[in-house]
Amino acid sequence: MEDIKKRIDLLKSNLKKWEYEYYGLDNPSVSDFEYDQALKELIELEKKYPEFLTIDSPSQRVGGVISNKFEKVKHSFPMLSLSNAFNKESIQKFIDDIKKINNKANEFFVEPKIDGLSISLIYENGILIRGVTRGDGETGEDVTTNVKTIKSIPLEIPYKNNIEVRGEVFLDKKTFEKINLESDKKFANARNAAAGTLRNLDSSIVAKRNLKAIIYNIPNPEEHNLFKHSDVIDFLRKNNFMIAKESELCFGFDGVSKKIDWFYKYRQEIEYDIDGIVIKLNDLTLYDEIGYTSKFPKWAIAYKFPAEIVESKLLDIKITVGRTGKINYIANIEPVLLNNTIVSNATLHNYEYIKEKDIKIGDYVSLFKAGEIIPKIIKPILEKRRDVIEFNKPTNCPYCNSKLFKEKDEIDLYCLNEKCDARIIESIIHFCSRQAMNIEGISKSIIKKLYDENIIKIYWDLYELKNKKELIISKDLNIKYKSFNNLINGIEKSRTNSLERLIFALGIRHVGEVASKQLALKFKSLNNIINVSINELLKIDDIGDKMAISISNFFNENNFNKHLEKINKYQINTSFINEFNDIEIKQENTKYKNRIVLITGSFSISRNEIKKILTDLYGCKCVSSISKKVDLVIAGKNYTQSKVEQAKSLNIEIVYDEFWN
Ligand code: IVH
Questions:
Q1: Does 113 qualify as catalytic in the annotation?
Q2: Which of 246, 330, 360, 634 is the most interior residue, by most CB within 10 Å?
């Protein structure tokens, strides 16, 4: 028995070493055959002696577990995305803005922007215990069994403190081509194939696809005594992670600019698709001070290469109607490869654009992608023009046939018929969307089918679906018992959403996600908002005349009573839900309002949660280094002595309590 355990341990440690040599060092010392033989032997031994099977065993790499769904997991730190720069001037501005805050900041880490999917990996005592997808940035899905099949992700690392690392899962170009050749289902690009694979419920399929992962981030580096991004990368390398070997530390704008040119020149030679370059300030201790916009950090930016321009044939122009009635023009083109993706649709803005550019059906056209998912048509290639058909300006809605309307001074055409099927379907899709009521288990196609079958006629009807199980399943809607239950769960859950989601979901003209959140935060309940005057609305940041009038009209129209009836009938929550409900926050406490705060030491909840409370609820700016600008220092257990001493010498107020007490 002792011998068997020894043999298993040896196989495990050899396999782990070989995986690291192959993926981490790019320098294998054994052949694939030798690796496969050892893995086979290990699997057989573990089958015979299951008492020796451990969660970090390389045998987990072959998968086998079939899940029925992935559990939702809340990220301990939000997974952020990056703002984009499309030219070097924006990079210069990015650097200048940082220098305005700290003149000495001059080192930038320049990395490839891997076109894959972000992943968060959690290690406890050096053992990989969880892998979670990005999801919406706040909550992701637990894909641990799939992640364990990715050989470039170590199952065990030398560092034994609990740690979370983040990076990108991808398929390299060669593997992608192979998969697309072999499988019936063709993916548009390597990223889609990787996404489909990572979320596959059968982990043995994932194991066969040979995903890889490059790691580039630790969300709380300072807690692991890492103060530079280059140190983070060294740390990751030493802990057997695959890192992007093309990355480089660069100095000032000139250094960054040279490296950008280098990446542009050699991008085809990199083994995976990249969709740009990421530039990160190397000094992590300045991150808090440099801060964040509502969506992105200001200490990093993604540089996108100049747009690729390709040609294709314009087969047709289709008209669609949005939920506000706006008419959109979609070009159907012959499928063409653009920025690593096969595209068959492109946007044409509006009729004036089509006319001005003299675009005709049957033309060869040039197109490009400018950051958006759907590409744009630039112009027709007149030299190639043969048989073409003029595209005529629409006069009537293609769905309800009502006369289209154009506001004075506006370019776009609108269908004003509120009963237009296309508009209603779009409004239901919007209501269910991730940013609005976030109804899981529903899709655009289900919504369309339910609408076409007369089962739903307005988004409120969704809340009646639970009583129509037999009817829905009996119709040929491709909704089975299980998906029906998921659908109902998703719908029921949405009744308890916080107010801002409901406001956004109602589809009030001009009111986006940010304004919805501000309204909810300020007025706390739908009832309060209904009676608010335009003047009061205008006092809110970001709410201008147009929006204020639109909000006021929406709530004062007769139609709104019908909405209100449904909201009451289906008991949909109409109050703002404070995410931090378990912590009693004294809102009237003005001590924290709009101040620059430094937090040091530890508290009963994580520092990140405290920061979120301070920024979201009190409008504070949280910084990590002491300066005259700081208004308040909050010192928890084991606070950094020097920070508190400096605060004292600068006469900065210090709060020693847990601040919400
Ligand atoms: S850093 C706050 N570095 O790009 C820092 N992201 O648009 C967050 N990505 O969601 C990301 N390569 O999925 C970073 N070298 C890299 C990256 C990278 C690819 C992805 C990542 C992120 C998205 C941001």
A1: yes
A2: 634
